Amino acid sequence: MGGKWPGVNAVSETSIEITFSYRGVRCRERIKLQPTPANLKRVAQHRAAVLEAIALGTFDYTVTFPDSTRARMFAERLGQVETVEDYLCAWFDQQSLTLKASTLHDYRMTIFNHLIPAFGSMRLSDLKRPVIRNWCNTLTAGNKRIANMLSPLRIALNDAVDDEMIESNPLHDWTYRRKTAPRRIDDVDPLSSSEQTSILANLEGAARNLVQFAFWTGLRTSELIALEWKDIDWIRSVARINKAKTAHAKEPETPKTRAGAREVKLLPMALQALDAQKEHSLLHPSGLIWLNPRSNLPWKGPNGIRKSIWLPALERAGVRYRRPYQTRHTYASMMLSAGEAPMWVAVQMGHADWTMIARVYGRWLPDASPQAGLKANATFGQDAVITNGC
């Protein structure tokens, strides 16, 4: 009897049920009427009005179906998050279940130190693009920093749209940009061969081994302190890089990108450092290669190396200060200056392609030699000349 009217069904002798979707939820509501043909038609018209109100955004569940449990559910769902602060706090708690510790730390700093002070008292539905743009205009940070600050807000608002708490994301398909002076390419400041020699001469034992290994593998400091002896393939002379230990993580975490998980070829100077390190940590219960020489315990985070090994060594060697990350830049500059293929260097360093290498380390890419192209000409050129001659 209800087949004539889609979404309308007689479910008992005294009630008619209508079915519709609201906010992504399939809803069924009963109306106390006998399922006569006239009543079924009337209920179908009522359902059509409900669908139209939903489409126009004017549907109020609690008004239309005041006694419905669904009405109470939607009322609570819409009322539980009234301000940006309420929503961001709840959203951050959810992210803490899945995000890596380092990412979670960055989100925490941004949300509670910047976003909530700026927008926390606003209703979530009132957070519009002009408000966000005006806030960005007051910041003294550069475009990249502002983009990083807006990143968690963008993701959170996407989730709010998916949960139907707001109709649209004000940050969708929009990036804040202000006119800035040309940006200096990174802080690439590699150490020269003589500086490397001076630094290593002022280190001994496990500390010297660690720094020498860093110079000749290009690993990030967080990757160094998570490297285990089982990650070394002595037969193929490679190190399997599959984790990193950041300052905010209790345990090593997997790389953030697929390219970050890689095999790094161990050159002779890196193998030499590993061989010398065996007496210091090969039998250590942690299985880690690089330990804090002072305590013989695992490093708690990358910053410890800077304070206890790197900075004192630079001071003793009389070498101008650079942060430990420059060992990575030093590796890249050495490889490229020696003529190694940029794509090979990119893979060694964990980049998805060599565009990063070209952008950051372009000045160390050797110019084409006068003989460039002659090998290809010798291989393919003669056949082309003969063909053209025919």
UniProtKB/TrEMBL annotation:
Keyword DNA-binding: yes
Stretch forming the signal peptide: none
Pfam family, one: Phage_int_SAM_3
Core-binding (CB) domain mapped to chain residues: 82-161
InterPro entries attached to this UniProt entry: CB (IPR044068), DNA_brk_join_enz (IPR011010), Integrase-like_cat_sf (IPR013762), Integrase_catalytic (IPR002104), Integrase_recombinase_N (IPR010998), Integrase_SAM-like_N (IPR004107), Min27-like_integrase_DNA_bind (IPR022000), Phage_Integrase (IPR050808)
CDD domains: INT_ICEBs1_C_like
Chain ranges of the Tyr recombinase domain: 186-376
Keyword line: DNA integration, DNA recombination, DNA-binding
Entry's family note: Belongs to the 'phage' integrase family.
Alphabetical list of PANTHER family matching this protein: PROPHAGE INTEGRASE, PROPHAGE INTEGRASE INTS-RELATED
Protein name as catalogued: DUF3596 domain-containing protein
